[in-house]
Write a structure and sequence with these properties.
Strand content: 25-35%
Helix content: 10-25%
CATH class: Alpha Beta
Oligomer: single chain
CATH topology: Double-stranded beta-helix
Number of helices: 6
Radius of gyration: 18 Å
Order of helices and strands: EEHEHEHEEEEEEEHHEEEEEHEEEE
CATH architecture: 4-Layer Sandwich
Structural class: alpha+beta
Number of domains: 1
Distance between the termini: 41 Å
CATH superfamily: Clavaminate synthase-like
Length: about 290
């Protein structure tokens, strides 16, 4: 049967049907998928059964592979992942084997964030493959940052347009202090790169609001109280449901999203249930 791409009907996202990602893809198929990804921001491929190498090979169709945060930040304690996991794969899991975590981010909520904005060249895309999922919980929601920017009240837009935001590197998206980092007294003092709050997508040419994560974010040139007030107002507006697609995972799902114009969050799930996801990423550009 012919390849089908169907919109989720939400603010972003489409489901790709009739495609086996274990098989080589024709150039015209890759081009169609790339265009759909740019249009819909999030693509969902159901019913896939990929090895890590197959996941990486699929990701390579769209660009150069990027390393996960533990490798980019050169953790002194390493990633903690099993030795047979490729360096380009990031294991997202709550599972503990022989007293040792096999992955990152556990079972708690991972609050709204963009993947790896704490480097000078944040990844362009993330591709997440569901190997094991809990019966309930752990859904991932995605936010359309084109739409948020277009709808942002002029009073808030005036406070971010032309401004840069510091993206804290010392904490994960679930608020845990990373290896090799210490706590900072204020967001202004946190280590991390500066990125424009309104960025232009290098492929679509469209402008999107670029936030990273809420905690420990700092807008250049603001006092602490003003910084918190502006960011609280922006996040309260952005979290409105009309900008969001919530993905309910099924085993075998592969979800690819555009980090340059989307944020995402994961809801909490029961820690007694197993959840194992393997993620690959694409190299990106310096945000402008």
């Amino acid at each position: 049967m012919a390849l089908e791409i169907t919109s989720t009907g939400a603010a972003l996202g489409a489901v790709v049907s009739q495609l086996d990602l274990t098989q080589p893809l024709k150039a015209e198929t890759v081009e169609r998928l790339r265009n759909a990804w740019l249009d819909h921001i999030v693509l969902v491929y159901r019913g896939q059964d990929l090895s890590d190498l197959q996941l990486l090979n699929f990701t390579r169709y769209f660009g150069e592979l990027e390393y996960p945060p533990s490798k980019l930040l050169n953790y002194s304690q390493g990633s903690g992942q099993k030795a047979d996991i490729p360096l380009e794969i990031n294991v997202i899991s709550n599972v503990v084997e022989n007293g040792k975590k096999i992955g990152q981010l556990g079972y708690a909520e991972a609050k709204w964030h963009t993947d790896t904005p704490f480097v000078e060249r944040p990844p362009a895309a993330s591709v997440l493959h569901a190997l094991e999922i809990p019966p309930t919980g752990g859904n991932t929601s995605f936010m359309n940052m084109y739409a948020v920017l277009e709808a942002l009240p002029t009073s808030l837009l005036a406070k971010v347009e032309g401004k840069k935001c510091k993206h804290d590197v010392s904490h994960t998206s679930d608020g845990v202090l990373r290896h090799d980092f210490g706590e900072s007294a204020t967001a202004k003092e946190c280590p991390g790169p500066w990125h424009p709050m309104v960025r232009t997508h290098p492929d679509s040419g469209r402008k999107a609001l670029y936030l990273g994560k809420r905690a420990w974010a700092y807008i250049e040139g603001t006092a602490t109280e003003e910084n918190e007030e502006i960011l609280d107002a922006i996040w309260a507006f952005a979290e409105r449901p009309e900008f969001v697609y919530e993905h309910v995972w099924t085993q075998g799902d592969v979800v690819m999203w555009d980090n340059r114009c989307a944020m995402h969050r994961r809801e909490e799930f029961d820690d007694s249930e197993r959840r194992i996801m393997h993620r690959s990423q694409l190299c990106g550009d310096i945000p402008v």
